[in-house]
Amino acid sequence: MALNEERLFAFLQRCVDDAAATIAAGTIVVGARLGLYRALAARPSASPEELAAATETAPRYVEEWLRGQAAGGYVDYDPETGRYSMTEEQAFALTNPEGPVYLPGTFQLALGALRAEPRITELFRTGGGMPWHEHDPEVFTGCEFSFRPGYAQNLVTEWMPQLTNAEAKLRAGAWVADVGCGHGASTVLMAQAYPESTFVGFDSHTGSIEVARKRAAEAGVADRVTFETGTAQDFPGGTYDLVTTFDCLHDLGDPLQAARRIRASLTTDGTWMIVEPVAGDSVADNLNPIGRLYYSFSTFLCVPNALAQEGGYALGAQAGERPLRQLAQDAGFNAFRKAAESPFNSVYEARP
């Protein structure tokens, strides 16, 4: 076998980049937890000793951390002064968990998911599943911090106005079910934006429901927001004006039954808002960095969770529009369309 050395070394370089990114994920989470990014961003520049003093950390660890961050482009280094700094863009993406972009949350989610590697390896052999609640707690918190910035940036200003009559109903006073709500980030954001409406969030993970209740109380919306344990297939029905599923439909073992349950719970002119990871309809469409990210998360989180449920069917995080449209039609919805899109999410509207 004759190897093409140019292609071989290009592949080796990719592997080095991936290995560096994998271990760097831990340093990014450390920097966020210890306030290293925030402290550095608050200064024009800092030496390792100054940053360590400001964060009550050990200088030698901070020095090594800063070197790695500079090598990865997460902070800047001035070789003449030996000092480190952050650009406005770096600070914007790394320091504010309440902002529209907060990258440490994604790395926290990845580290939490990777702790299940021995279990996932075994599932490859058996074909079984791993329920959501059996993952490391970092997965649940990482999901919140990873997804919430995108929702905060787009949900009220970009996505909701594109739905048919939904925003007018919310402003007048609607009854909303947020199915698969996790820690309630999407539910609370909607409640804050639409004070005349009432919201109930459902999730199968009891621990997440408990956190969601705390988040609602902290946000001052607990008088209009409740959270209950329930699955997408059996959440309490009613006549909801709007049912939302944020980045969770692809995690379900029986998405068709969930879609039917949602259809039965809507008013005659209600709306199902489906927010899913952005994806093309074919594998070839998704062979890009975002597709790689979602396929990898899906291998550790989404597919195992779906295969652990009744139904045993897994859409995966890169399902694309075509199977979602078919799902809505099979569940009895008469109208389905893509309403909006952001860099990481597609938003679909299904109506009776």
From TrEMBL:
Could you list this entry's UniProt keywords, alphabetically sorted.
Methyltransferase, Transferase
Residues that span the membrane, as ranges: none
Q: Which residues form the Methyltransferase domain?
A: 174-279
Domain spans labelled S-adenosylmethionine-dependent methyltransferase Rv2258c-like winged HTH: 27-95
Q: Name one GO molecular function term.
A: methyltransferase activity
CDD domains listed in its UniProt record:
AdoMet_MTases
Q: Which GO terms describe its biological process?
A: methylation
Gene3D superfamilies (UniProt xref): Vaccinia Virus protein VP39, Winged helix-like DNA-binding domain superfamily/Winged helix DNA-binding domain
Does the record bear Transferase in its keywords?
yes
Protein name from the UniProt record: SAM-dependent methyltransferase
Tell me the lineage of the source organism: Bacteria, Bacillati, Actinomycetota, Actinomycetes, Propionibacteriales
